From TrEMBL:
Signal peptide: none annotated. GO terms for molecular function: DNA binding; transposase activity. This is IS110 family transposase. One of its GO terms (biological process) is DNA transposition.
Amino acid sequence: MGNARARKIPARLVEDEDYQLRHERVAGSDIAKAKADVCTRLPPGREGGRRASRVEEVPATAREILALAGRLLADRVELVVMEATSDYWRMWYYLLEAAGLSVRLVNPSHARQLAGRPKTDRLDAQWIARLAEMGLLRPSFVPPPEIRALRDLTRTRLMLVRDRFREWQRLEKLLEGALVKLSSAVWSLGASKSARAILEAICGGERDPGTLAALASGRVAGGHAAVRQALDGMLLGDHHPVLIRMHLDHVTLLDRSVAAIEDEIEAAVSAIPAAWGISADGVPAADPGPGATALTADPASPGSALVRLSHLASIFDGTASSVANIT
C-alpha cells in the first residue's frame, strides 16, 4: 500500500475538445410559421465577463428578416443555425444566405437528443445557439442556389410528364367505353403517330373503320387489317369527339410545357459550370462567373455581404436605409 502511494501520479487537467468554444459569434433560431425567436451569442463586453445573449422575436416577413441580417452582419456573426421546421425555414435560410451570412440547417431530432433542451421557443433559440457555438450540431445538406433552381425545374418536368401519362390513360379509358380498341392495335397511344392521326380523324367526324385504318402506318403490327378489326363495332356518341378533342388538346399543351421546361433545364445545367469557375471542359474558366465572387474585406465592394444585403433590402421600402447605417 505504501509503494502505491509513493507512485501516485499528480492530477492533470485534460481539455475536452468536443466541448470547447468553436464559434465566438453565433445566432440560433427557433422558427415557427409566422415568426422566429432568434438568440445571438456574442463575446463578453469586458475581460473576464460572461458571454452576452440577445434574444428577439422576428416576424416571418422579408423586410424583418433582412433587417435581422443587417444586425447579424453588424455583430460580425460567424454562423446562423436554424432547425428544419416544415418548409418555414426556407424563407429564413434563403434570405440570410443571400445576405452573405453563413447559415446551417440542422435536424430537430438531433438537438432533441441532447439532454437539457428547454420547452419554450424563446429558451429553445438560446439552446440552439449554445449548441452551435460549441459545434455540437451536425448541419444538414442544403443545395446551393444553382442546384435548387435546377431541382425545381426537374421536379416540375417530372410532374408534367406524369400528368401527360395520366391524360393518355384517361383517354384510353374513354375509348374503351366507346368500344374503340385502338390501344390493342398500336403499341402506344401516346407515342404512336398512327394513333394520333386516327383520333384526330374521329374528332373530325370520320366513322368508317376502313378509312380510319388506312391512316395507320404500314409498320403497325398486324397491318391495316389489325387496326380495322380494333375499330369495328365502335359505339361513338355525340359527346365522344368533344371529349377526345379535349384530351388531345391537353396532351398537346403538356407536350409544349415539357419541351419548354427541358430548354430551361438545359440552360440551367449549362450555367452551373460557369458558376463554379470551371469551363465545360473541366478547366478553370477565364470568367469565373457570378457564383465564384468572393466576399472581400471592403464593405463597399460589389461582392461584399453588406452591398448584397443592401441590394436585397432595396426591394422592400424602408429597409435599405436601415441597412446602410451599419456601414
